[in-house]
Amino acid sequence: MKMNIKSLLFGLMAIVLVSCDKSGSDFSKYKPVLMDRTLMENAVKASGVQALHIPGKVVIVGNTIYVSEKFYGIHIVDNSDVNNPRKVSFISIPGITDFQLKSNMLYANSSVDLLGIDISNPIEPKVASRVKSAFPVKEVAPDGKSLQKQYQMSSWPTNSILIGWESI
Predict the structure, then answer these.
(1) Is the full-model pTM beyond 0.85?
(2) Burial label, 13 (beta-carbon count in 10 A; 0-12, 13-18, 19+)
(3) Region of poorest pLDDT, from 12-21, 23-32, 55-64, 88-97
(4) Which end of the chain is less congested by CB atoms within 10 angstroms, N or C?
């Protein structure tokens, strides 16, 4: 019986030690990437072909493939020759997390704003409409943990917009 109690106590101690947060912090390991609103609004434009790093959503319309790059923008690929797809353009859209297409319009979020972008000429896209603050600010880090005080929204510079996250 003494052996069973010792085993039980040892098991409980092991569980307690393993479940402890060794970092001593329940704070996120991420910090927000911020951009001035005016800079963000002026940054939506074609910036030439770029390498695809972390592909996101893919939408195919006819012979054209649209691939999002989370927080950065949209890659446009001409797939007329399926054996030789050709990158056509990259549209920089700071803070993008989702998009949709209808006719020659690309609808996307640029952080908290909703954009309507005319892509009839994908090399020279034009912002046709912008609904400012259409979406709520999400002050939740990718790991779901609380932000350290210096990274919380109350500490952000005036006119700053959250456009992504980076590891601390």
Answers:
(1) no
(2) exposed
(3) 12-21
(4) N
